[in-house]
Write a structure and sequence with these properties.
The chain is an alpha+beta fold. The chain is built from three helices and 15 strands. It folds into two domains: 2-76, no CATH class; 105-284, minor pseudopilin epsh fold (3-Layer(bab) Sandwich), CATH 3.55.40.10.
Length: 290
């Protein structure tokens, strides 16, 4: 809205300015007409701007007949930003689609990481056993334990004592059970050979009765599987190259020994560790077999 005030006079009907009689009357008339104009602010005034009306010294003109006090108050307070329900639903749908697309990749990565972690654990344990045999100059045995799900497969390391001439001598236990992740298996292949093959018997190589405080090594009545490092750090058992390898995969095993494998295609389902007979060192041969 706009206000035009003229303290020198007012406009008559013809548009000419008429002087006021004295300063006191001008102030009184100005006050009265100001209050009247403010009270009638919603009423549009028709006439020419820049001239005072007949009511004595004040002219009020509204620039828009639709302007109101409520609209001015609303313009002074901007609306706070927010999301509509439809926008929230669209965002949630996009997030759900992205998670669905990423889930297979994340699952495959976790499986591969679990196998690789088990491989590192086994190879480190083999190296420690080899070094222990070299340092002591006595055979060191790595015993493999294949369990029924949900109990994990594990390995343990023993060393022959310095004096084996005494009666009732016992092996020296060098480690506790080194457990693998629950879904990682020491795999016994249906075809081919490995340290875990049924045709490889270690009864004469390692005497379970001489284990101190027996940790249930043969609780499932299966033949015991052993890897032996000799005094020079090489592998003395198994001696055949075809058996000096260990296969690691993912899956579960039931009480009959049957293994249900998972993730065997597309993401490298098997890891194969082989050992050198002369040096006893282990290496990862391949990461995927069909």
């Amino acid at each position: 809205m706009k206000f035009w005030l003229n303290f020198a006079g007012c406009c008559n009907n013809s548009g000419t300015t008429a002087p006021l009689s004295d300063a006191g009357n001008r102030g009184k008339v100005l006050h009265q007409n100001t209050m009247k104009a403010i009270s009638e602010v919603e009423t549009p005034f028709l006439g020419e701007p820049g001239c005072l009306g007949d009511n004595g010294g004040l002219r009020v003109e509204r620039t828009s007949s639709n302007l109101s006090i409520e609209s001015l108050a609303g313009a002074a307070q901007p609306r706070s930003p927010a999301f509509s329900l439809l926008e929230l639903l669209v965002v949630m749908a996009v997030i759900a689609i992205m998670l669905a697309l990423l889930l297979p990749a994340i699952t495959g990565f976790n499986r591969t990481a679990g196998r690789r972690g088990a491989v590192n654990t086994l190879m480190n344990t083999f190296e420690q056993a080899r070094v222990a045999a070299l340092e002591a100059g006595r055979p060191v045995y790595v015993v493999f334990r294949r369990r029924v799900f949900p109990e994990p497969d594990a390995i343990m390391v023993f060393r022959q004592p310095e004096d084996t001439t005494v009666a009732n001598w016992r092996y020296e236990q060098l480690t506790k059970w080194v457990k693998l992740p629950k879904t990682v298996l020491l795999h016994k292949p249906g075809a081919g050979e490995s340290i875990l093959s049924d045709s490889l018997i270690a009864t004469d190589e390692f005497d379970v009765s001489r284990v101190p405080n027996p940790p249930l090594l043969a609780s499932d009545d299966r033949p015991l599987k052993v890897l032996t490092f000799n005094e020079s750090g090489g592998v003395s058992f198994p001696s055949d190259k075809a058996y000096r390898k260990l296969i690691i995969t993912e899956g579960v095993r039931d009480s009959s020994g049957t293994e249900a494998l998972v993730g065997t295609k597309g993401i490298g389902g098997f890891e194969i560790i082989s050992l050198s007979r002369s040096t006893g060192r282990s290496q990862l041969d391949v990461t995927t077999i069909q």
